[in-house]
Hints:
245 residues, six-stranded mixed sheet
Amino acid sequence: MIIRVGHLYPDYLNIYADRGNIAVFALRAARRGHELRVDAIGMDDSVVPGAHDLYYVGGGQDREQWLVAENLAHKAQPLIEAVHGGAALLAVCGGYQLLGRGYKGFHGEEMPGVGLLPLETVAGERRMIGDVLLETDLGPIAGFENHAGRTYLDEGAEPLGRVVSGFGNDGESGYEGCRLLRAIGTYLHGPLLPRNPRLADWLLAQALAHRSGGEPPELGALPDELEAQAQAVSAERARSRGGKL
Ligand code: GLN
C-alpha cells in the first residue's frame, strides 16, 4: 500500500533530525511491503483532508516557529478535519507547541496555534534540556528534550506518557506529550523514531488504517537489535542525568 505523508514546512521546521524520523517511517514501511510517498506542505500549499494518511510537523526554534505560525494557523481547519477524519500525525517540539492553542513568548508575544491539541505553551526563563525517559501505553519511549516552553494540557487531555526521568511538558506535572485520536505531540527528539521503533510502528499502523478505511494492521516484527540498544543507552542517560528543575 502507498502511505501518503504530508510533511509540513520541511524547509523551516527541521532541526531535530526530522528527516531522520521520516527515513525511519520509509524504511519500516518498506520492510513490510509498503511504500511511503512524502509530499512537502509548504507556505503556498494547502492541507486537503483525506489526501494524506500521516502528517509530520518537525521542530524549530522560536524564530522558525514565528515564520510559519500564521500560515499554519490558516491551515488549522483542514488539519483538524484531517485528524478527526482518521489521519495520523506526529508533531515534535516546536511543531508540538504549534498544534496547541498557541505559544506565549517570554516577553508576552503571542504566537497563534492550530488548536488541534488541547494545550497551550508559555515560554519560561530556564530552558529544559536533557535526556528523557517516558513510560507510555506504547512501552518505554526515550529521547532528548530542549525547550524553553512550558506546555500545559487542559484537564482531561491525554498525555503521551508519564515522565520517569527528565522534565516533560512543564517540568512539574510529571507528564509528557499529548495524544488525541491518531495524533501524537511530543518534545522528544534527537532523533525520536530510530530509538523508539514501537512508536514509529504505531503511527504507521494508524496511517495504514486511514488509507484502507479498516482497522490498524498488525505489523510484522523487525529485528530491531540496534534500535533496542539505542533506546537502552538513551534511557540510561535519562536515568543518570535527565534534567530536573
Ligand atoms: N519554542 C520552543 C522552545 O520552547 C522551541 C524548541 C527549541 O527551540 N528547541 O524553546
